Amino acid sequence: MFAAGGRTVRVLGVDPGLTRCGLGVVDGGKGRTVRCVAVDVVRTSADADLAHRLLGISDEVERWMDKYKPAAVAVERVFAQHNVRTAMGTAQAGGVVALAAARRGLPVVFHTPSEVKAAVSGSGRADKAQVTAMVMRLLNLEVAPKPADAADALALAICHLWREPMRARLAEAEARAAEMARTHKARLAAAAKQAKNPGAAR
Predict the structure, then answer these.
(1) Who wins on pLDDT, 12 or 32?
(2) How many CB atoms lie within 10 A of CB 121?
(3) How far apart are CA 69 and CA 94, in angstroms?
(4) pLDDT single digits (tens) 28-63
(5) Distance CA 154, CA 56 (A)
(6) Domains along the chain?
(7) Which of 23, 104, 110, 126 is the most exposed place for a label (fewest CB within 10 A)?
(8) Closest by alpha carbon to 114, among 171, 155, 168, 161?
(9) Which residue is catalytic, options 15, 60, 152, 164?
(10) Would you list the DSSP string of the chain?
(11) Is 27 noted as a catalytic residue in this protein?
């Protein structure tokens, strides 16, 4: 595994889809150092029934998880689209990925497209060409991952590597603040109770 500063975090990024499901594994080291480990696209035939298409995606995703052993899985969050059928298929593929990760005890985080674009390119409105160009630059790739689903999967992994530490710190700070608030409230309640009954503490 890629090592930087003695600590490496490996993330599997998944751009879910029934016809094409992008998979990208990225190692993150010290600072914002990132390296591409693997990238590919799982394809299923539109002529196959839904159950077998989902099974095909599940089998390949599980094979990647077992082979590359990521520490976390980043999946693109599905939003309502004009094509409801496409949105449903994307959500179903994402659910299969989340289930495979849960079976292995891996944390799964869903990132919105705008979060991914902003993390990688600096703009939440970047188009696919801009995202692909930045992914190539960040990972020092000479050839653009194709199709776009592959580049999007790598972008998801990079987004998670850069956003998750901050999100974790915020969650930890919120937990500490909540604990301090509970402690303070308990002390106030104890003080109020003693004020009403001064002899109780003797």
Answers:
(1) 12
(2) 20
(3) 19
(4) 988 789 999 999 999 999 999 999 999 999 999 999
(5) 21
(6) 9-169 (3.30.420.10)
(7) 104
(8) 155
(9) 15
(10) ---STT--EEEEEEE--SSEEEEEEEEE-STT-EEEEEEEEEE--TTS-HHHHHHHHHHHHHHHHHHH--SEEEEEPP---S-HHHHHHHHHHHHHHHHHHHHTT--EEEE-HHHHHHHHHS-TT--HHHHHHHHHHHHT-SS--SSHHHHHHHHHHHHHHHHHHHHHHHHHHHHHHHHHHHHHHHHHHHHHHHHH-GGGG-
(11) no
Choose from 75-84, 106-115, 160-169 the range with maximum mean pLDDT. 106-115
Query: What's the pLDDT score for residue 49?
Result: 96
Q: Was 27 annotated as part of a binding site?
A: no
In the numeric block, which tokens belong to residue 185?
């409230």
Instruction: From 45, 32, 63, select the one nearest 137 (Cα to Cα).
Output: 32
The catalytically annotated residue of 27, 60, 76, 152 is 76
15 is in an annotated binding site: yes
Active site residue 76: yes
- Extract the tokens encoding 164: 């998750």
Give 86-142 pLDDT, tens digit per residue.
888 899 999 999 999 999 999 999 999 999 999 999 988 899 899 999 999 999 999
For residue 34, list its beta bridge partners.
Answer: 28
What size, in residues, is the chain? 202
> Annotated catalytic, 59?
no
The response to whether 76 counts as a known ligand-binding position is yes
